[in-house]
Specification:
The complex is a heterodimer of chains A (about 300) and B (about 190).
Chain A (H helix, E strand, L loop, with lengths): L16 H18 L1 H15 L11 H6 L4 H17 L12 H11 L2 H19 L3 E5 L2 E6 L3 H24 L6 H12 L21 E6 L14 E2 L8 E5 L2 H22 L5 H22 L2
Antiparallel strand pairs in A: 1-2, 3-5, 4-5
Helix pairs in contact in A: 1-4, 1-5, 2-4, 4-7, 4-8, 6-7, 7-9, 9-10
Chain B lengths: L2 H17 L3 H20 L4 H17 L6 H4 L6 H26 L8 H16 L5 H18 L4 H6 L1 H4 L1 H14 L4
Helix pairs in contact in B: 1-5, 2-3, 2-5, 3-5, 3-6, 3-7, 6-7, 6-10
The chains are: A mainly alpha (about 300), B mainly alpha (about 190).
Chain lengths: ~300, ~190
């Protein structure tokens, strides 16, 4: 009898890579979706959106402008939920994992996509709510409407913003040494972005993250006859301005190009979270999209 | 405070300052100062900017309580509360400096460091009493949660109570300090 043993050939074939990735996506998605923060933030956003409604005596366009920034808590929640798994990638055991870092990063990003669906559902909710209210108010007499609705281009911003929130969460989570420091950083970024009147000037609007239309364009002094302006212009004048007449300008083109800028921003942020391999491509694509988006917005604004 | 612990604290100040992660706080300060400068240049209302600054600076200060070496340091003759106070002092001074700069840059009606101190004290109180595993995370989230709740709650009694850190910051600070004192042995 020989003491030598022969190992049994491994009968189980190797698991295909796509099945491994799918399993990772499932596990990461379950973890992210179980995090209560984005759902609490979604409830806050829904509540804040619900409380926006036209009121007599409001600043002309206040309700129209108030719809978009209400999404800030949801974006903060998405970023926090995504930052947690990306922060886990900083642990020392991660480099020894049997799955390459690129695959794990991709799996986490795919797992975060349900949040994009949530943002799209919120856009649908906003569209329904505005119709339920009979439209929002913009402008003052003689250039005024009480039936203003956000266009599809403006509502598409919610989806693009969700992508930015995911990318921002990934970047901050991956690059911040302590998870607890993520909270103030993400809070400031999203709530400053939602302070829309800081970014209302035509020169600053193209660089805003949460873009709130209308853009205010000076069209004449206080002494100008508002009836001399084109009849389709939405106008605002004293006492709501510094004295002159301003046009409240809403543009679908501006909103679409703003989405391009946001996609560029998302790619740039993803570049910060992505492993070394492939990072350059993301940064280059992001830079091209961001520059194209900003340039086109500047060109579109009259 | 006894003599030996004072000496230990004094000697611990420099290594503790080295152990603190300053980069997130510094980024936060730069961003807030840039936003304050933007609000000044566009002559837009800055009250909300200062409120955001108070909540974020308070969250940053409380997040500095996170000490990865807490278990190792539990053997030294200085209580956990004294080490927390050292970290708060190290982080609080730059936070107050940033706040002062923000106030100088903007023309907001919200003045004085009361809101910042009140929110920080609330965060520290939560960090002391919360379950240890997530104590600092919950504490750092408290100023943010108070700000967001104030934004979300419509005007009324609840809103007035939530906004006490803005309207009566010194009373909130006093109450939070009492809670901290009650939890000093935790």
């Amino acid at each position: 009898m020989s003491a030598t043993t022969v190992s049994r050939p491994d009968a189980t074939p190797p698991v295909p890579a796509h099945r491994v990735e799918r399993a990772l996506v499932g596990a990461e998605a379950r973890r992210m979706l179980r995090n209560p923060v984005p759902w609490v933030c979604l409830a806050l956003t829904t509540w804040m959106t619900w409380t926006v409604q036209p009121e007599p005596g409001e600043w002309p366009g206040s309700s129209y402008e108030g719809m978009m920034p209400a999404v800030a808590p949801l974006l903060l929640g998405i970023s926090i939920a995504v930052a947690v798994p990306f922060h886990r990638a900083r642990h020392d055991v991660s480099p020894a994992a049997p799955v390459p870092e690129v695959t794990r990063t991709r799996a986490r990003l795919v797992a975060a996509l349900p949040f994009v669906v949530v943002a799209a559902a919120h856009a649908a909710f906003v569209a329904w709510r505005e119709r339920d209210l009979g439209g929002l108010w913009l402008g003052m007499e003689p250039g005024r409407t009480t039936e203003a609705l956000h266009s599809g281009a403006e509502l598409s911003q919610y989806v693009a913003l969700a992508l930015v929130a995911i990318a921002l969460g990934a970047a901050v989570g991956r690059r911040t040494s302590r998870l607890v420091a993520v909270v103030p950083v993400l809070f400031v970024l999203w709530f400053v972005a939602s302070t829309y009147w800081l970014f209302g000037a035509p020169g600053v609007t193209p660089f805003s993250v949460i873009q709130v239309q209308p853009v205010h364009l000076a069209v004449g002094p206080a002494t100008a006859d508002p009836l001399s302006f084109p009849s389709d212009w939405l106008l605002v004048g004293a006492p709501h301005t510094d004295g002159g007449w301003e046009r409240q300008w809403v543009s679908e083109s501006l909103a679409w190009w703003h989405d391009v800028w946001l996609l560029g921003l998302a790619a740039l942020l993803l570049g910060a979270a992505w492993p070394r391999r492939g990072r350059g491509t993301l940064l280059a694509a992001g830079a091209v999209l961001a520059v194209a988006g900003v340039t086109a917005q500047v060109w579109v604004i009259p | 405070m006894s003599g030996p612990s004072t000496l230990v604290l004094a000697r611990a100040a420099v290594p503790t300052a080295r152990a603190v992660r300053w980069a997130p706080g510094a980024s936060l300060a730069i961003l807030l100062l840039a936003v304050a400068a933007l609000s000044r240049s566009t002559q837009r209302p800055a009250d909300i900017v200062l409120a955001i600054a108070a909540a974020s600076l308070a969250a940053a200060v409380v997040s500095g309580l996170h000490d990865p070496a807490a278990a190792l340091l539990s053997a030294v003759p200085v209580s956990a509360m004294q080490r927390r106070m050292l970290r708060l002092a190290l982080l609080g001074v730059p936070a107050l400096t940033v706040w002062w700069l923000l106030e100088a840059l903007t023309t907001a009606t919200l003045s004085g460091p009361g809101p910042l101190l009140a929110l920080t004290a609330c965060g520290v109180a939560v960090a002391l009493w919360a379950p240890p595993r997530r104590a600092v995370l919950l504490g750092a989230s408290t100023p943010v949660a108070l700000f967001v709740a104030h934004q979300a709650v419509p005007a009324g009694t609840v809103s007035d109570v939530v906004a006490r850190w803005q309207s009566d910051p010194w009373w909130v600070l006093a109450g939070a300090i009492l809670i901290c004192v009650a939890g000093r042995h935790r």
